[in-house]
């Protein structure tokens, strides 16, 4: 298999998932609206005290992002599993690792990028400064791919099971904890006026490690689920 | 792709008789006459082995399949040769689909091995995937995509993307020219099956593994798929087909495998 054909296969797969997401855009919008509503409920429920809101903002934005991205995990493989496309993808002459990478990339673009883009607007409700909003974006930009790629393990393991959504939450949320700590830590640091660099570096390291190892786990899980 | 497969079989062969030739030279030292004799016998034997390996593609050895607590079949042995059609028969639930899934490497058998050109398909991995096309019970057709998008994306993902013009020709071949820009959602069951069949036409695989190909096809589509299969077998490919109907193919060699 030449490098060019591997690239084009990867490209076709990402392209396919993007078209499919576009044709089912209601699903994508549901995730974004969930994120918007959850983050908006907190200022409404807690009241307009600036200091309180500023203190809870990092945690709230990150927890909401976690939950929103979890909502969309079932779609990474679910539809392909049902119509038999997943089997065909596993049987393509490229490694399943690459199939997983392509699908995770498409999931990130479709379901996570909108969260990153909309987060600063939502941060305004919490009275966050411009500087902090930037950190929110950067931390989400580094953290959300981890959510996608680790979430793909849970999605693959629960394929075809009843109550898959609940199981995914139980499997995946504990694995999201480091991302939550580093991500909200970064925002917290900026809010309190210290440097967020250390947190962002940790987040970047988590990203690299999970990008290398999680797709292996996912492809193994996929092969088990398809059997 | 098919040519390169043959090529690799050939090179395997030329490297294999190494020990024989060593023995050839040893015999020369004994006597000229016997050397001549022996080498003829060796050549004949070499050609025989060569033909055997050339023809033999897939080998199932002592396959056992267990689903849940039920054992579907045990110690199943068979071989598939070039140009050969295997008709897989058996009542519902006898393990036809399970066997096909084992043969294409999706399922691991409870016991036994599947060999391709003498190598275990587990070890071959993606190299094996490149020579096999599997048409499952499910069509693997995406509802949201149009017929032509389905075809072009499926071929692109499996590594031999088609140009738009070629994709249109392929769709015309299976009688879907009129429907090429319709979303697959609105296609009938038979039309979706026809769309799935395009995977056979566009793939360069040597081994076709087909699960109930004729399901929900009308008369003309059935004939069409028979035509595709005959053409494939004539070109030296092989096919394993699970079916309830008679295929009535004029293949060079047809084996029937009955599961009970």
Write up this protein.
- The complex is a heterodimer of chains A (227) and B (260).
- With 227 residues, chain A is mainly alpha-helical.
- Chain A has helices at residues 3-23, 25-46, 50-71, 74-82, 85-90, 96-123, 130-157, 164-191, 197-226.
- The radius of gyration of chain A is 18 Å and the shape is elongated.
- Chain B is an alpha/beta fold and 260 residues long.
- Chain B has ten helices and nine strands.
- Chain B has helices at 2-15, 18-30, 32-55, 96-103, 121-124, 126-129, 147-157, 164-173, 189-202, 219-234, and strands spanning 56-67, 70-81, 84-89, 111-116, 119-120, 132-135, 207-211, 238-242, 253-258.
- In chain B, strands 6-7-8-3-9 form a five-stranded parallel β-sheet, sandwiched between helices. In chain B, strands 2-1-4-5 form a four-stranded antiparallel β-sheet.
- The model of chain B is unreliable at 1-34 (pLDDT under 50).
- The chains are: A mainly alpha (227), B alpha/beta (260).
- The interface between A and B is medium-sized, with 27 and 32 residues.
Radius of gyration of chain B: 22 Å
Number of helices of chain B: 10
Oligomer: heterodimer
- Chain-averaged pLDDT of chain A: 91
Shape of chain A: elongated
Count of alpha/pi helices of chain A: 9
**Helical residue percent of chain B?**
40-55%
Number-wise, the strands of chain B total: 9
Rg of chain A (C-alpha, Å): 18 Å
Low-pLDDT residue intervals, each spanning 5 or more residues of chain A: none
Strand content of chain B: 15-25%
Order of helices and strands of chain A: HHHHHHHHH
Q: What is the SS-derived class of chain B?
A: alpha/beta
By helix and strand content of chain A, what is the structural category? mainly alpha
Give the fraction of residues assigned to helices of chain A.
over 70%
Average pLDDT taken over every residue of chain B: 79
Total number of strands of chain A: 0
Query: Main beta sheet of chain A, described?
Result: none
């Amino acid at each position: 298999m030449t490098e060019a054909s591997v690239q084009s296969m990867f490209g076709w797969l990402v392209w396919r998932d993007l078209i499919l997401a576009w044709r089912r855009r209601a699903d994508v919008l549901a995730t974004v609206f969930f994120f918007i509503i959850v983050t908006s409920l907190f200022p409404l429920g807690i009241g307009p005290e600036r200091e309180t809101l500023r203190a809870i903002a990092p945690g709230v934005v990150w927890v909401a992002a976690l939950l929103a991205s979890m909502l969309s995990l079932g779609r990474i493989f679910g539809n392909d599993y049902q119509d038999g496309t997943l089997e065909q993808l596993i049987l393509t002459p490229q490694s399943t690792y690459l199939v997983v990478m392509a699908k995770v990339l498409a999931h990130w673009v479709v379901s996570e990028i909108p969260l990153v883009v909309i987060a600063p607007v939502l941060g305004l409700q919490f009275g966050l400064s411009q500087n902090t909003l930037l950190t929110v974006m950067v931390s989400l930009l580094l953290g959300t791919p981890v959510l996608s790629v680790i979430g793909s393990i849970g999605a693959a393991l629960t394929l075809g099971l009843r109550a898959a959504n609940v199981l995914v939450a139980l499997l995946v949320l504990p694995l999201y904890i480091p991302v939550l700590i580093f991500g909200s830590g970064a925002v917290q640091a900026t809010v309190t006026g210290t440097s967020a660099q250390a947190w962002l570096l940790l987040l970047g390291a988590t990203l690299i490690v999970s990008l290398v190892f999680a797709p292996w786990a996912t492809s193994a899980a996929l092969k088990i689920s398809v059997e | 792709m098919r040519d390169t497969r043959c090529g690799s079989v050939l090179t395997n062969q030329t490297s294999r008789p190494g020990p024989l030739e060593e023995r050839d030279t040893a015999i020369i030292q004994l006597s000229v006459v016997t050397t001549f004799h022996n080498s003829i016998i060796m050549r004949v034997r070499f050609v025989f082995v060569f033909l055997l390996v050339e023809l033999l593609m897939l080998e199932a050895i002592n396959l056992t399949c267990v689903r849940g607590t039920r054992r579907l079949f045990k110690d199943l042995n068979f071989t598939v040769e070039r140009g050969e059609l295997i008709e897989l028969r058996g009542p519902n639930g006898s393990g036809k689909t399970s066997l096909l899934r084992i043969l294409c490497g999706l399922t691991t058998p409870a016991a036994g091995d599947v060999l391709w050109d003498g190598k275990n398909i587990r070890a071959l991995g993606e190299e094996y995937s490149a020579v096999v096309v599997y048409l499952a019970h499910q069509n693997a057709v995406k509802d949201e995509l149009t017929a032509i998008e389905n075809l072009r994306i499926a071929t692109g993902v499996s590594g031999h993307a088609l140009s738009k013009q070629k994709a249109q020709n392929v769709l015309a071949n299976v009688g879907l020219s009129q429907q090429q820009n319709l979303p697959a959602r609105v296609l009938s069951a038979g039309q979706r099956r026809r769309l799935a069949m395009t995977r056979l036409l566009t793939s360069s695989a040597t081994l076709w593994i087909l699960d109930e190909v004729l399901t929900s096809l009308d008369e003309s589509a059935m004939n069409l798929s028979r035509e595709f299969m005959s053409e494939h077998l004539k070109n030296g490919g092989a096919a394993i087909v699970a079916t309830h109907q008679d295929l009535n193919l004029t293949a060079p060699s047809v084996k029937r495998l009955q599961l009970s």
